[in-house]
Amino acid sequence: MKSWRKELWFNVPTRRAFINITPQVDAELAASGIREGLCLVNAMHITASVFINDDESGLHHDYEQWLERLAPHEPVRQYRHNVGEDNADAHMKRQIMGREVVVAVTDGKLDLGPWEQVFYGEFDGGRRKRVLVKIIGE
Amino acid sequence: MKSWRKELWFNVPTRRAFINITPQVDAELAASGIREGLCLVNAMHITASVFINDDESGLHHDYEQWLERLAPHEPVRQYRHNVGEDNADAHMKRQIMGREVVVAVTDGKLDLGPWEQVFYGEFDGGRRKRVLVKIIGE
Amino acid sequence: MKSWRKELWFNVPTRRAFINITPQVDAELAASGIREGLCLVNAMHITASVFINDDESGLHHDYEQWLERLAPHEPVRQYRHNVGEDNADAHMKRQIMGREVVVAVTDGKLDLGPWEQVFYGEFDGGRRKRVLVKIIGE
Question: Which InterPro entries match (chains A, B, C) (predicted)?
């Protein structure tokens, strides 16, 4: 069994953003030389997400509005977590969007459906954060 | 290490449905000959879900009502994604229910709890869609 | 390829609770002897969750309030599932928080970010329930 590990670093200037990281994950899979296996991609931070969906700006706008409705940032003081912090809502948004994805590796490629793209979801930006790519297989 | 890959195809006539696919996943595991490992089951489409929960019709009715409350289909024009489409809500419902499950494989069986069943969740039916089953192990 | 399997048992006296199980998962990884691979941790019950987030009591209070707002327990009769049961809301809360996490194993350790902790989320306590730890690798 072979394994491969790489950290991808981000520093998003805005509080929230969705970034398509499929090319970076593809590159790590190519570098790994693994042809059959599983590829885990996870946020290493608890106010960020890795998820799979569509690379369509209208949808990303809708996600932003929808997550803000389900877990509003304001008023900041509504959350007990926000003592010296203001990111409780980010911990909630990330649970809806998910921490991680596991993608099959087949014939040396990410085995994704036609519209599946891997995203980094930032919900509390303005600081350096990491995504872990871990691939195991042969 | 052995690996096994199979696509399961669906064409749900209604917009939304929950379909128990545990028998199909069981059959793929048996065909794989894998005794110890991990089994990934994921929707290959971004308006569908694979999740694990109870095979109980009352609960499925409740899920349907609840998801519609959290991410309403109507009015369609409330979503910026819906330009020539009407499925923005389906992209949201799928994030709540999840894209994928990873199930342990132990002694050649899906290592599920007593009530755990694997479901395909369709949120934008009326077209052919796929679920990927990928099993790795020995 | 090596594999390791262990069930962790819980009997939470309250209806809902979040329990940090990172030490137990760490112990299973040490016992497995696996140095590189993937570690699946999943609830074996469908009204419970395994998720990764912060071990901070204010946040856990906020999660409790937030989940109750998104999927209220009362009135119990609002849910069709609640025939001889009162836990429909628990099936919903668990979908938001998720069934499982997959954690990379690197150099014999859980490859977690600085604040990542693994939690058992109970949403319908007062009974014995299990979490499955399955580790594969070398």
Answer: UPF0047_YjbQ-like (IPR001602), YjbQ-like_sf (IPR035917)
Complex ipTM tops 0.95: yes
Distance of residue A94 Cα from the nearest chain C Cα, in angstroms: 9
- Asked if the bond preceding A13 is cis, omega within 30° of 0, the reply is no
How many domains does one find in chain C?
1
Domain range spanning residue A58?
Answer: 2-137
Mark yes or no for CB contact B61/C80 under 8 Å: yes
Q: Do C37 and A96 touch (CB under 8 A)?
A: no
**pLDDT tens readout for residues C47-92:** 999 999 999 999 999 999 999 999 999 999 999 999 999 999 999 9
Task: Supply φ then ψ for residue C28, to 5 degrees.
Answer: -65, -40
CA distances from C3 to B104, B111, C31, C102, C107 (A): 10, 13, 11, 15, 16
CATH (domain of A48): 2.60.120.460
